[in-house]
Specification:
This protein is mostly helical and about 650 residues long. It has 25 helices and four strands.
Length: about 650
């Protein structure tokens, strides 16, 4: 029954992608078909996954496939089920949001193609997490990359969109090449690439090579530093509901791949945990620093995806470190915290991208320095965005706090029990330091975002004429905001939800005891937060009652005595963030442009800042320039004459024969 539902879900999504093409490329028909099939496929997939997650059992189906090394082998276990639920939730709400978001493009864009690729992206992500054959996995992975590429290129007439699309495509295929080598080595001499027939690595060197290939291949999709360079360009270029899917769940397939492959490689050595821990700490801190320096709201959120992938990877690093030193508590809390943050980040990051899309939809810009005062124009959007902003900062009683808290107590526990500085204690200190720094910087960043975008006065005509988001967009944002609060207040249930996955991967009876311990602590936090909410609600209601019979007036805020204040007297994104960015300018290398006229009473002043991605500018740009020069140098071989190409082939075959003979 479980696999029948899963196959039906995939069939509905593939059928919906085809039907969208013929339902009217520029009309409402394509949107209706797209959203109905997406939601239907999501419901079927969630039902199938819930059964596997509840029972802890694995369901599978294996059929012959006339493709070398391939079989149609798919299965659902608790790990797959967890990712299926996460993917389906985000994609269903993104489809609902997308119906209104794409309305302004009707008549100008082929919406049938957009919904076709959206459903293909949804289906391919599901197929990635249920595939149990290397060839099938690679095909699904490529379909996911290509469908998301075409969605990124939705507004391909813009030069920056085309550049973002090509950078993403190159990064995706560099990762794909690493994954091909990974599966070839795992397959060994077998005639099949089924996961249950993979050759167990003989020796630490072989296992280490496979681990590095997995980090490179899956890390390129997940956005590990410095492989993240495609992400800050692709997310802003894509439509906002697609950005939510890419950031919320697509990059998490890289996390899934790492967890799945590591689970096949046997006992991990300590350096695997250290590798993930350091990658996570660097990605988290650098991601939030680059986010703090941004002015484009969607580009800022893209860098926060790098930050949160770093938090997830810190948890996974603690998991592997705990397994390697036989510390069940560290392993279980790191794993549960990291994987639960996959779900929580998917929820609050999708909410933030939906909010950013609603703001851009209403104002016609993504530049925060042209926004302001939107809370008055878009109160519901502001409330939902504010909840998402608090959740991403890890504040209780919201869902981001729960998953980060599990990682915190795991790291703190190993530090408290360690006898001396070194080994596990150092790992715990790295995790605690990185998480503390990330949390503080994230709070500063979203104070900037919410203040600049929603508070104050409008800084442009677009902001002054902004309007509230349409109904379907508000519905998707409201649903995610409610989930942020519900999963935060129900922290113990969130831990129970992820426990079957931890049991599968750790195979340890102590997992339930550790889960109960963490749930008990979170229950106290939930009760305290719930009590505080009730008390706050009581005083709010009391205030409303006391003021109901009085005349209430509103006036402007204190303007320091200025007779004619203007929006230019407000903080900008640059001026607000500069005190923090200035402390880390030796890392992010920002450029500050200050224009202040001389004299006692200057009538004009200007301050702006710009921050390039140092990894793209100083690492990958020189590499690709060198590759371009090499390509130009050997371009003379491309003569355009067929008989010369035949000669090249003959020479190649001859060389291969000589090598074989020797």
């Amino acid at each position: 029954m479980t696999m029948c539902l899963m196959l039906t879900s995939l069939a509905v999504l593939f059928f919906g992608s085809l039907l969208s093409i013929f339902a009217g490329g520029s009309g409402r028909g394509a949107s209706r078909v797209g959203v109905v099939t997406s939601v239907t496929g999501a419901v079927l997939a969630v039902i199938a996954a819930s059964t596997a997650l509840w029972t802890g059992a694995e369901s599978s189906i294996r059929m012959a496939w006339q493709v070398p090394f391939a079989s149609f082998y798919i299965a659902i276990d608790p790990l797959s089920a967890f990712f299926i639920i996460t993917i389906s939730l985000v994609c269903a709400l993104a489809a609902i949001y997308g119906t209104s978001y794409l309305d302004p493009y009707r008549g100008r864009k082929n919406l049938g193609a957009a919904w076709c690729f959206f459903n293909l992206l949804f289906a391919s992500m599901l197929l990635v997490v249920v595939s149990r054959n290397g060839m099938l996995f690679l095909i699904a992975w490529e379909a996911m990359s290509l469908s998301s590429f075409f969605l990124v290129m939705f507004e391909h007439e813009k030069p920056e969109v085309r550049e973002a699309g090509w950078v993403y495509l190159i990064a995706a295929h560099v990762g794909q090449a690493c994954l091909m080598f990974l599966f070839i080595l795992l397959g060994g001499q077998n005639s099949s690439l089924d996961f249950d027939r993979f050759t167990t690595p003989m020796g630490a060197a072989a296992a280490g090579t496979l681990f590095i290939l997995a980090i490179a291949g899956f890390g390129a999709k997940a956005g590990f530093l410095p492989l993240h360079v495609w992400l800050p360009d692709a997310h802003p270029a894509a439509p906002s509901h697609v950005s939510a899917v890419m950031s919320g769940v697509m990059i998490k397939t890289g996390i899934y791949g790492i967890v799945r492959i590591v689970s096949l490689l046997g006992m991990p050595p300590q350096w695997w945990g250290w590798t993930l821990l350091i990658i996570g700490a660097v990605s988290g801190v650098m991601g939030v620093l680059f986010a703090l320096a941004q002015h484009d709201i969607k580009r800022l959120l893209a860098y926060h995806s790098v930050e949160n992938i770093g938090i997830i990877t810190i948890g996974l690093g603690l998991w592997l470190l705990g397994v390697s030193i036989n510390s069940p508590v560290l392993a279980a809390l790191g794993l549960m915290g990291g994987l639960l943050h996959v779900l929580n980040h998917a929820i609050f990051k999708s909410l933030l991208f939906f909010g950013a899309g609603a703001v851009a939809h209403a104002t016609g810009t993504r530049d925060m320095d042209l926004m302001g005062g939107l809370q008055k124009k878009m109160p519901r959007t502001a409330l939902a965005f504010g909840i998402g902003a608090a959740a991403i900062c890890g504040l209780p009683p919201l869902n981001g706090f729960v998953s980060e808290f599990l990682i915190y107590i795991g790291a703190f526990g190993i530090v408290a029990r360690a006898g001396a500085l070194g080994g596990p204690m150092a790992g715990g200190l790295i995790a605690l330091t990185a998480l503390g720094l990330i949390g503080g910087l994230a709070a500063a960043c979203f104070a900037k975002v919410f203040g600049i975008v929603f508070l104050g006065e409008p800084r442009s005509e677009g902001s002054a004429g902004a309007h509230e988001a349409p109904g379907s967009m508000l519905f998707a944002m409201t649903a995610l905001a409610v989930l942020c609060v519900a999963l935060g207040l129900a922290g113990p249930l969130s831990v129970r939800f992820i426990t079957p996955v931890a049991v599968q991967l750790l195979g340890n009876a102590q997992v339930h005891e550790i889960s109960d311990l963490a749930s008990g602590i979170l229950l106290k936090v939930s009760i305290a937060c719930g009590t505080l909410i009730i008390i706050s609600g009581f005083f709010w209601a009391l205030r409303r009652i006391l003021l109901s019979g009085r005349v209430n007036t509103a006036g402007p805020t204190w303007d320091c005595g200025y007779a004619a204040p203007t929006s230019r007297m407000q903080y900008t994104a640059s001026s607000f963030a500069w005190p923090v960015i200035g402390m880390f300018q030796w890392i992010v290398r920002p450029k500050l442009h200050a224009g202040i006229r001389k004299g006692l009473f200057p009538n004009y002043a200007d301050l702006s800042s710009h921050t390039d991605d140092i990894f793209r500018k100083r690492l990958f740009a020189p590499i690709f320039r060198s590759i371009s020069r090499m390509a130009q140098a050997i371009h003379v071989l491309q003569e355009g004459r067929n008989h010369l190409y035949v000669l090249y082939i003959a020479i190649t075959i001859l060389v291969l024969l000589l090598v074989k003979v020797r």
